[in-house]
Amino acid sequence: MTLVVFMVCPVPPGQATTLADTPVLGERFIQVVAHPDDDLLFMSPDLYGAVRAGGPTATVYLTAGEGMAGLDDHHDPHQYARERVDGLHAAYAYVAGARDAWTTTTVTAGRMRVQVDSLADRPEIRLVFAGLPDGGDPRADGGRDALIRIWSGGACVRPFASPAPCADRPEVVSMLRALLRRFHCTILRTLDPYPPHARLGDHPDHVASARLANEAAGGLPVTVVAYRGYPMTGWSPNVAFHMRQFKREVFRRYRDHDYRIRYGWRYWAWLERMYRIAP
Question: What is the pLDDT at residue 162?
């Protein structure tokens, strides 16, 4: 594994982030994130290049993202998880310039069963759903912070979105490792596994997802690139104006299916920023 470690420097407003519209021949991308929308907020516009070009790319969502749905309101949490999947479908199809039509299969990765959705017109574009409980959901085995408890090594947690057996850290790592091999990944994108201690810290699920993915990549010929999450909120906007508009349009396709999103200054900040941890 080649771990690309980044030092973030302030970028003047309006300066464009790098976007490879045509990926290098042979590159195969996997993004591993905690929640449906982490990729759209924190790894974009980088992830657009392969999707727009039709290159091989897969995004793995470790949690169902149900959060507090059904606890602080009357919305069915399972329906909410499905709505978030619909939002991702719409967003990725929009980036690809393709019909929002997907084929769904269930595959065994390691010892875990995961849902793999492939864009019908561009089947090399895949979304993978592990369906583990969201960290904010107290209904999970052992209560909140299921993903961080899995990472800590002492928890075996049943998936939220299926009746499958509980999964512990070795099983989640084995699942991710199997997917890296299955899709012949050459570049793995994660969130920041060791975010800075700041007033605005990162989500524990973000940290756990990144650490699990990095462990899965150990020993494989994979380049790992990490992205800052919440801690970038107050940094300088660094997505070029035209790409910022596109990022907003992509996210709007997702947001139309996510009733819990209420646009505020944080969302606007994330849509104007993307920080790799770059050398």
Answer: 81
